[in-house]
Automatic annotation (TrEMBL):
<keyword id="KW-0560">Oxidoreductase</keyword>
<keyword id="KW-0411">Iron-sulfur</keyword>
<dbReference type="GO" id="GO:0005506">
    <property type="term" value="F:iron ion binding"/>
</dbReference>
<dbReference type="InterPro" id="IPR001663">
    <property type="entry name" value="Rng_hydr_dOase-A"/>
</dbReference>
<dbReference type="InterPro" id="IPR036922">
    <property type="entry name" value="Rieske_2Fe-2S_sf"/>
</dbReference>
<dbReference type="Pfam" id="PF00848">
    <property type="entry name" value="Ring_hydroxyl_A"/>
</dbReference>
<dbReference type="InterPro" id="IPR015879">
    <property type="entry name" value="Ring_hydroxy_dOase_asu_C_dom"/>
</dbReference>
<dbReference type="InterPro" id="IPR017941">
    <property type="entry name" value="Rieske_2Fe-2S"/>
</dbReference>
<protein>
    <submittedName>
        <fullName>(Fe-S)-binding protein</fullName>
    </submittedName>
</protein>
<keyword id="KW-0001">2Fe-2S</keyword>
<keyword id="KW-0479">Metal-binding</keyword>
<dbReference type="Pfam" id="PF00355">
    <property type="entry name" value="Rieske"/>
</dbReference>
<feature type="domain" description="Rieske">
    <location>
        <begin position="46"/>
        <end position="151"/>
    </location>
</feature>
<keyword id="KW-0408">Iron</keyword>
<dbReference type="GO" id="GO:0016491">
    <property type="term" value="F:oxidoreductase activity"/>
</dbReference>
<dbReference type="GO" id="GO:0051537">
    <property type="term" value="F:2 iron, 2 sulfur cluster binding"/>
</dbReference>
């Protein structure tokens, strides 16, 4: 199957021109979609959830990824486990999608029963010679990075996850994401290919004209610009902004808050970028007025002026601020549908209505996600048109899209396509 897919997909990969969007078939074809699931959602590290999704022993959360299903849970020793949601008897799913509370993992089909560690505890009517020790649930490779759960479904996960782990554990430590809680969760099914969802997130060329709520706390000069198009006054403003970034980054880092951009975007397996961004306006949070939504700050944070630690990967994007965090993951459902799951995190002891207002906490990104869903659907509809030709990226505002497309082609090639 891989060879037939590979021979059919390889010419599409050859067609991609540097500095341009991908050929239509890489967004629309079913064989490409299956290859994407295999390469990017099985053989690479992906973000799937949070330690605080399962705050107590016995809490379990199922994540479905194509034909695979995994269980994120907390065991009786308060340790995080990630297990394949496949009974070792005849393969039945142990748990349904979503969240549940369990004392054991009991297969509904024939009642094979597993400890929360994954060990098989009970298998009725299997005879005295049956060896339970070799029928534990299969574990999934995972890392908890500052409370974010990354998994790789391959038996040989990429080793360069270590860079992401080293960088983000230090950056996320003051926020103590493992001891936060999910205040709200939303899900949107975007009518477009998962790569269009990621591309849309990696540029803000479109932000000024499409995201009025987000632009209250985002600085438009951060979206990128063509220097030749600026007036002398605007050029001076851009230079002042750059100087402010350099000074603010230097000050933040001197105070013990890593802030400079760290990128691992091409010539790598694990794709990520992080940087501490200045927040516009009141400068505190991504809310309708850019002030903090929660009076109870995350973790050990005591300041609201430490900007936005952003982090993205090839299936996620995150924003960590003093008062709350926004964590988003994507799951491809088909070539033309993508699930976008967003969670808003607050301090575990924060109380809605007393410490934070839910509408103020969530309204900016609820609006932004809905706007982005419309843009992705509009883009996918155009890609389906026979008149579509891959257009050139702006070198000033869409450089990260070129990086992503380059990485995508390289990783497909590295995995035999």
């Amino acid at each position: 199957m891989l060879n037939s897919f590979s021979s059919a997909i390889s010419p599409l990969l050859d067609q991609r021109m540097p500095g341009h969007a991908l050929p239509a078939g890489l967004y629309t074809r079913e064989d490409v979609f299956k290859a994407d699931l295999d390469v990017f959602f099985r053989r690479h590290w992906i973000y799937v959830g949070l330690e605080c999704d399962v705050p107590e022993p016995g809490d379990a959360h199922v994540i479905d990824l194509g034909s695979s299903s995994i269980i994120l849970l907390r065991d009786d020793d308060n340790q995080i486990r990630v297990l394949h949601n496949v009974c070792r008897h005849r393969g039945a799913r142990l748990l349904d999608s979503g969240t549940s509370i369990v004392s054991k993992l009991v297969c509904p089909y024939h009642q094979w029963t597993y400890e929360l560690s994954g060990e098989l505890a009970y298998a009725p009517h299997m005879g005295t010679g049956f060896d339970k020790t070799c029928k534990s649930l299969k574990p999934v490779h995972f890392r908890s990075i500052g409370g974010l759960i990354y998994v790789c479904l391959s038996d040989n996960p990429p080793e360069d996850i270590g860079t992401l782990e080293t960088v983000m554990r230090e950056r996320l430590a003051p926020y103590d994401i493992a001891n936060s809680k999910v205040a709200f969760q939303s899900e949107i099914i975007e009518k477009g290919n998962w790569k269009l969802t990621i591309e849309n997130n990696r540029e803000c060329y479109h932000c000024s004209s499409n995201h009025p709520e987000l632009c209250v706390s985002f600085i438009d000069l951060d979206f990128g610009f063509d220097p030749a198009s600026l007036s002398p006054e605007d050029r001076e403003e851009a230079e002042r902004h750059q100087a402010l970034y350099e000074a603010r980054t230097k000050a933040w880092e001197a105070e013990g808050f890593p802030s400079a951009a760290v990128e691992q975007l091409v010539d790598c397996a694990t794709n990520f970028r992080t940087q501490r961004l200045i927040i516009a306006g009141a400068g505190e949070s991504q809310t309708p007025d850019a002030t903090a939504a929660s009076s109870k700050l995350l973790g050990s944070m005591t300041r609201k002026d430490l900007g936005d630690v952003h982090l993205w990967g090839h299936n996620c994007w995150h924003h960590f601020m003093g008062d709350h965090a926004v964590c988003t993951m994507i799951i491809p459902l088909s070539a033309d549908e993508t699930l976008v799951r967003t969670k808003w995190l607050v301090h575990k002891d924060a109380v809605e209505g007393r410490d934070y207002d839910l509408d103020k906490l969530t309204s900016v990104w609820i609006a932004t996600n809905e706007q982005d869903a419309q843009l992705v659907a509009r883009s996918y509809s155009g890609v389906l048109d026979p008149a579509y030709e891959p257009g050139p990226y702006s070198p000033f505002t869409e450089g990260q899209l070129d990086n992503f497309a380059t990485w995508y082609i390289d990783r497909m090639r590295a995995n035999g396509y």
